[in-house]
Design goal:
276 residues; alpha/beta; Rossmann fold; six-stranded mixed sheet; six-stranded parallel sheet; binds 2'-monophosphoadenosine-5'-diphosphate
Length: 276
């Protein structure tokens, strides 16, 4: 019997990761024979662990916090979307033995919004909260949807302004602080800060969500995040967490590795039941 191709996710902490369950479900869904494990890997041992993994025959890796920038530096080749994000969440062993770095996070977000939730981005006013790595990874695919404008608001204003400047050639985009949001309204508010993880909410003014406007937290948890709850209190049309994004970014990585696309909607539904 042949040995199954093997894949893994590296990160620290990693025990909470849903990726092994997700890829197992993808493999069942598409009749692929493969294994996928989560491995606790810190920044200090990242490069050695990646080399070991591929030397032992590993076919592909996901990298999560705090390793995405290191994976970007490690990859011998980079996809255009990884170059824009300056971060890599998927490493792929190429036929020539080199390692390609890609970033499927933004694709995952946009696919979840458009396909799973029917939330269009074209001609919409979009607010992104946060100016760190998570924000950087989603801006290019959002701009590709031709929104009316994108505003990046951040606690450290200079970071928001600098990030907006980087993407200026793609459309109307500006950076500001949270105080500057007063009096504005948005069709979609994306929380890309790490505040949810510590149960904190960015300081947002009331009445900032337009009629039929939606909220989306890139984080997810077993309970609705504080930002998702805020959206519901503010009467958002929909207030969603990032489970769908997680599954869609994983599906894109799976496609890059295996060349087949799993049925994501059934797997998202299953995950909501099985691992609520
Ligand atoms: P990631 O890679 O997850 O984006 P990061 O690069 O450390 O992580 O960025 C975290 C983001 O969350 C930053 O935009 C940060 O704001 P600052 O740039 O001002 O540090 C934001 N953030 C973290 N905690 C926050 C809080 N309690 N309120 C508002 N913003 C917060």
């Amino acid at each position: 019997m042949s040995i199954p191709d093997f894949y893994a996710v590296f990160g620290q902490p990693i025990h909470h990761s849903k990726s092994p369950q997700i890829h197992q479900l993808f493999a069942q869904n598409t009749q692929q024979i493969m294994e996928y494990q989560a491995q606790e890997v810190g920044a200090d041992i990242f490069a050695k662990s990646v080399v070991d993994f591929f030397e032992k025959g590993g076919k592909g890796l996901n990298c999560t916090l705090p390793l995405k920038e290191l994976a970007f530096k490690f990859a011998s080749n980079l996809s255009p979307r990884a170059q824009c994000a300056k971060a890599v969440n998927t490493l792929i062993l190429q036929k020539n033995g080199q390692i390609l770095g890609d970033n499927t996070d933004g694709y995952g977000l946009v696919t979840d919004l458009l396909k799973n939730h029917g939330i269009a981005l074209k001609h919409k006013r979009i607010l992104i909260l946060g100016a760190g790595g998570a924000s950087r990874g989603i801006i290019h695919p959002i701009m590709q949807q031709i929104p009316e404008k994108v505003v990046i608001a951040n606690r450290t204003i200079e970071k928001a302004i600098a990030l907006a400047l980087e993407f200026k050639k793609l459309g109307t985009i500006e950076g500001c602080g949270f105080d500057d949001l007063k009096g504005q309204s948005f069709d979609l508010i994306l929380n890309a800060t790490s505040a949810s993880l510590s149960g904190k909410l960015p300081p947002l003014p009331n009445n900032i969500i337009a009629e039929k406007g939606c909220c989306y937290d890139l984080s997810y948890g077993s309970e609705p995040t504080i930002f998702v709850r805020w959206g519901l209190e503010q009467n958002a049309h929909k207030s969603l967490d990032g489970l769908g994004m997680l599954v869609e970014q994983a599906a894109e990585a799976f496609y890059l590795w295996r060349g087949v696309r799993p049925n994501t909607q059934s797997i998202i539904a299953l995950l909501k039941q099985k691992y609520p």
